[in-house]
Structure formats: C-alpha cells, structure tokens
C-alpha cells in the first residue's frame, strides 16, 4: 500500500508542482505571445502531418504484420516496434545518418535534386512519424487480429474481391482500432522531443515544436515554459478523458 | 445442376476425406458430432481452405489439385450462411443484402426483403434485429446472389429454441424455392430430418453412412447415429444363429450371418424382470440399472452388465419392478427382436 502510494505520488507531485507554481497572471500573456503561437501552430501541423503519414503507411504495415506468421513476422514486428523502445535521441541520430546530406539516402538525394532534409519542417515530421507510427501499427494490428475472420469470408462468398473486402468490410470494422491508434500516435508525435531536436534542430518557426520551445524557454523565460507545459498537460488530459471508454471504463 | 466433389485435406492431427455427389434441388444434411469436420468440409467447398482433390459444380471445375486449378471464393457461385448470421454490423439490413448484388442494387435488395416480409426492417442496423430476423436476413443476403451451391453451417443452432421452429419453417420454404445444390451442416438430427432429403454422416473426417433419413436411422453404422435414432447398436461376429460380441457374450439372433456384423435392438424390445424369466426369450442375462430418465410416456433405463443396453419401459413397470438406480434386474431380449446387418 505504502509503495503504491509512493508510486502514485511520483506521478501526482510533478503535476501538482506544475499547476501550483504556474504564474497564472503571466500564463495569459505567455499564451498569446507570438513565439508561443508559432510553436503551437508548428506542433499541430507537424503532429497532424505525422499522424496522416502514419495512417497512410501504418495501416498497410499493420495488415502485413497481421497476415504474416513465423520468423518473418517476428522480424517485421521487431522492426516496427523498435522506435518505441529506442531512445528518441538515438532515433534522431539514425535518421540523420540516413537522410543527412552525407547519409545513406540523403547523399544521392542531395546530389541528384539538391534536396536537403535535415533541419527542415519535413525533418520534424519524419522524426515524429518515426517515433509515433509504431503506436498506430500496434493498435491496428491488434484490431485486425481480434477481427472475426468470417466477416471477410462472408464478403468474399458474396463475390467481393480483395480490395472491395478491405475497403467495405475490413476498414470500417477496424475503425475503433484505427481511431485509438491514431490518437495515441498523435499524442506521441505532439510530445516528441529527442528525435526532433537531433534530426530537425531547434529552429523557431521551422522545427521548434512546443516540447522544444518548453526546453529552450525554461532557460530564458520560465513562465513561458510553464504556460506551454500547461498546454501540453491540458491536451494530454483531454485525450485521456476523450478516450476514457477505451482505457478507463469507470471514469 | 449438380455438385461432384472429392475432398481430402490434412491439418495437424485432423484429416478430411470425403466424396460427395449432390444433384440440384436436393438438400443434403451433413450430420456428425463436434469435430467431425463438417464445417471444414463446407469451407473447402467454398474455396476458403486449400484442398487435395477435385470439386466440380455444374460442369465447372472449381478445384482440381492435380491440374493446379483453384477458383477463389469470390469467383465461385457459392453462398454460405453462417451459424450466427455474420451480417456486417456497420451496414443497414438493406446494404447488407445489396452488398452481394451487381452495382450494390438496393432496388433488388429491397424486393428480396419485401418478399421475405422483412421490408420494414430494411433501414435497421443488424444489432437492432432479433436473432431470428438476423438469420433470415443472412439467408436472403446469400440467396440474392443466386448461388449455384448453397452452404448452410448450423443455420439454426445459435437461435433460441422458441423461435427455432419458426425460422426452420421459413428456411424450409426458402430452400424449396431455391434450385441449386443445397448442403446443410448440423449436429441436430431434427433439423437434418426436417430439412434434408439425404443424410451424410461424418465422423473423424470420413463419411460413415449416407442415405435417406429413414434408411440411415434404420441401420445405424455408428454410435452417433444409433444415439440419434435412439436405438442400441452392438457389433460382433456373426455365427449363423448367434452373434459373438466383443465381450465374448453370445447374442442369439435368427439371421446372424457371418463375419463382422452390426446388431440393432430397439429399447422397447428390451424386457426387464425381477426374477429369471421362463420361456421363449433366448437372450437372458443379469444387469444393473445405472440411471433412469423419464421421456414422455416412457422411462429409459441405462443398463450395465454382460451387454450394456438401454431399455424403455412404462412408468408402471418401473414401480412393479422397484426399479431405481443401482437395482439388479434380469434383462431379456427375444432373438427375433435383434436385427442384424453386415458391418
């Protein structure tokens, strides 16, 4: 009981500190400060873009995972879940080595088209997708595995070909899993720090998302950092409450 | 129109080896205990599992493993109705029925629903239907695609007993209006006898018996069929005027033949006595009543002893014999009541 209480306190105290020490009279001005608005806008843009990319690439990946078995599946699964356990900074370094100007993919890209990815908004989106997509893949794959295969069999027996079965039956039935996966993915992308700062840098207006802005502001104007932190806290709470039916049935 | 199928497949410990010939307009019921391979057989015919063998429907080869031919499910004129309807939960009843139609024609779908008296449920979602309605919609959804082969996988077993009879009548009516080949899988003998022209009994992946319901129940060839026909089935070696049972007991029967034989004794032909009966019966032995079960006007008594049998007696006989679980009795069966046929 005591240990459980200590565990709870570990979660609760920082939150309490954040709310208690918030300079509420300065939160308002800090919120409407132009740099806050820029970081917030960029954060929303990057995290939503990352979620969109994750949806487009992650759903097919989840289907592939759900339809394979054995060693191949183990390898694919390890690959997709690696970014979840990898320290984000390491992910950022890896991305830099792949897409950097002298990287595996980056060098030919720069040589042929003069395209340079690191330290652009695109890099921030890639970094967030890298870190957040596994959450979507895992959720959708679990949804696919829980799906009664007879729905797809019934659709096929009614004459529907592969694509029609997927679009008209499988996808709609997966909607709850896709939704919760997308929300988790978005929340993770919104909070992304390590991979972004390593791969995309900290350029206000281009790659400086809220978590980066919080980190920088903590040095110069702590009240701004607290205000931005409160925004992220509010978003996290909103997600928890919005998804409570899925995660916290009793709330 | 007809179906001609030879299906062999192996999965883990289970092997299926079935040969089926069914003509159009005929309803076949595949009966068998759980795990006999009934559903696997249907899935094989639908093309949902790969097989070794050959399936030909109306002259079209759907599967021929020797020639490497396999027509996928969606290109077969085969309809399946599952045990628990499997209606698409995110579509209305109308869209469910239209799903299998050319251009998702809701006009034709509506006509089908109207004809089945379900027109007023067209805009309902599947979860708003009763179990019976949902199964009727599932049947219509399949029939509307005009399949040449209709596969019904335990279509009534998920329903309440109270509405089963009603849906069975409807099913029977719809089946008589369907001109293709019909195969019904069930473990319910009543369903099989009510709906099918021919029974195919499947056990351990093999056909153990087939024929009209009357033929099959008159000469059971397995414990499963004997149980559903409610008769005692014994097996032994024919020795002219008696059968030597596996236990070594001799069972007198006028035409025992020779070789491996089955013997059927109706429970009503098994007489029970408190003392050894005198006179005609040539089969008499000691037995012990294991349990009693009242069924309608009769009491079924399960006996152990030299020959384990079920006897059916009247309630008054139970009183006169002071029968109870554990009671010792004399069991007698007239030789002429033992019907024998080759195994």
In brief:
The complex is a heterodimer of chains A (251) and B (343). With 251 residues, chain A is an all-alpha fold.
Report on the structure:
The complex is a heterodimer of chains A (251) and B (343). Chain A is mainly α and 251 residues long. Chain A has a single domain, classed as Orthogonal Bundle (MetI-like fold). Helices cover 82% and strands 0% of the residues of chain A. Chain A is built from 13 helices and no strands. Chain A has helices spanning 2-20, 24-32, 34-67, 70-85, 88-99, 106-113, 121-146, 149-157, 162-191, 194-199, 210-220, 222-242, 244-247. In chain A, helix 3 (34-67) runs antiparallel to helix 9 (162-191), helix 4 crosses helix 7 (121-146) and helix 8 packs antiparallel against helix 9. The longest helix of chain A is centred in the N-terminal third of the chain and has 34 residues, at 34-67. Chain A is globular. The two termini of chain A are 22 Å apart. Chain B is of the alpha+beta class and 343 residues long. Chain B contains nine helices and 19 strands. The longest helix of chain B has 16 residues, at 161-176. Chain B has helices at 38-46, 93-98, 106-115, 131-143, 161-176, 189-195, 213-218, 223-229, 315-320, and strands at residues 2-11, 14-23, 27-31, 52-57, 60-64, 69-70, 78-81, 149-153, 181-186, 198-203, 206-211, 232-245, 250-265, 270-273, 283-295, 298-305, 309-313, 328-333, 339-342. Chain B folds into two domains: 2-87 and 129-228, 3-Layer(aba) Sandwich (Rossmann fold); 232-342, RNA polymerase II/Efflux pump adaptor protein, barrel-sandwich hybrid domain (OB fold (Dihydrolipoamide Acetyltransferase, E2P)), CATH 2.40.50. In chain B, helix 4 (131-143) runs parallel beside helix 5. The A-B interface holds A 148, 150-151, 153-161, 165, 168-169, 172-173, 175 and B 43, 46, 48, 72-76, 78-80, 82, 86, 88-90, 99-100, 141-142, 145.
């Amino acid at each position: 009981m005591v240990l459980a209480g200590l565990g709870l306190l570990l979660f609760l105290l920082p939150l309490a500190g954040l709310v208690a020490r918030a300079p509420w009279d300065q939160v308002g001005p800090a919120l409407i400060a132009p740099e806050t608005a820029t970081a917030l806008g960029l954060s929303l843009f990057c995290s939503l873009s990352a979620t969109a990319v994750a949806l487009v690439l992650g759903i097919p990946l989840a289907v592939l995972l759900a339809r394979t078995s054995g060693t191949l599946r183990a390898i694919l699964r390890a690959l997709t879940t690696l970014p979840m356990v990898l320290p984000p900074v390491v992910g950022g370094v890896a991305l830099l080595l792949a897409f950097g100007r002298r990287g595996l993919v980056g060098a030919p890209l720069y040589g042929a088209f003069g395209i340079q990815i690191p330290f652009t908004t695109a890099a921030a989106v890639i970094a967030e997708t890298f870190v957040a997509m596994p959450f979507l893949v895992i959720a959708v794959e679990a949804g696919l595995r829980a799906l009664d295969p007879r729905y797809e069999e019934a659709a096929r027996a009614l004459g529907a070909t592969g694509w029609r079965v997927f679009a008209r039956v499988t996808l709609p039935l997966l909607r709850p899993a896709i939704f919760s996966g997308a929300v988790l993915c978005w929340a993770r992308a919104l909070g992304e720090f390590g991979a972004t700062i390593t791969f995309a840098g900290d350029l206000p207006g281009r790659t400086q998302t809220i978590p980066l802005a919080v980190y920088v502001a903590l040095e110069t104007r702590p009240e701004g950092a607290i205000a931005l932190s409160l925004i992220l806290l509010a978003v996290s709470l909103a997600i928890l409450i919005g998804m409570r039916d899925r995660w916290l049935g009793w709330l | 129109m007809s179906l001609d199928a030879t299906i062999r497949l192996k999965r883990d410990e289970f092997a299926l080896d079935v040969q089926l010939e069914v003509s159009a307009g005929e309803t076949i019921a595949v009966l068998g205990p759980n795990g006999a391979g009934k559903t696997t057989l249907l899935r094989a015919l639908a093309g949902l599992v790969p097989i070794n063998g050959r399936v030909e429907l109306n002259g079209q080869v759907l599967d021929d493993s020797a020639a490497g031919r396999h027509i996928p499910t969606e290109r077969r004129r085969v309809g399946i109705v599952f045990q628990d309807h499997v209606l698409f939960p995110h579509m209305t009843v109308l869209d469910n029925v239209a799903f299998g139609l050319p251009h998702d024609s809701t006009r034709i779908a509506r006509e089908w629903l109207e004809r089945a008296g379900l027109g007023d449920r067209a805009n309902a979602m599947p979860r708003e239907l009763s179990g019976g309605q949902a199964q009727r919609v599932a049947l219509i959804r399949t029939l509307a695609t005009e399949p040449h082969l209709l596969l019904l996988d335990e279509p009534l077993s998920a329903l309440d007993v109270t509405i089963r009879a009603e849906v069975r009548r409807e099913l029977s009516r719809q089946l008589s209006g369907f001109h293709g080949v019909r195969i019904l899988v069930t473990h319910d003998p009543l369903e099989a006898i009510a709906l099918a022209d021919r029974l195919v009994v499947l056990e351990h992946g093999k056909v153990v018996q087939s024929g009209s319901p009357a033929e099959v129940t008159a000469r059971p060839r397995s414990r499963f069929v004997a149980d559903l026909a409610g008769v005692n089935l014994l097996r032994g070696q024919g020795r002219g005027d008696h059968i030597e049972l596996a236990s070594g007991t001799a069972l007198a029967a006028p035409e025992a033949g020779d070789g491996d034989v089955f013997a059927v004794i109706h429970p009503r032909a098994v007489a029970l006595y408190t003392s050894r009966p005198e006179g005609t019966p040539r089969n008499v032995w000691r037995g012990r009543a294991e349990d009693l079960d009242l069924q309608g006007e009769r009491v079924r008594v399960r006996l152990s002893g030299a020959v384990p049998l079920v006897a059916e007696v009247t309630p008054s006989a139970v009183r006169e014999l002071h029968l109870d679980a554990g009671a010792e009795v004399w069991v007698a069966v007239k030789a002429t009541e033992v019907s024998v046929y080759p195994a």
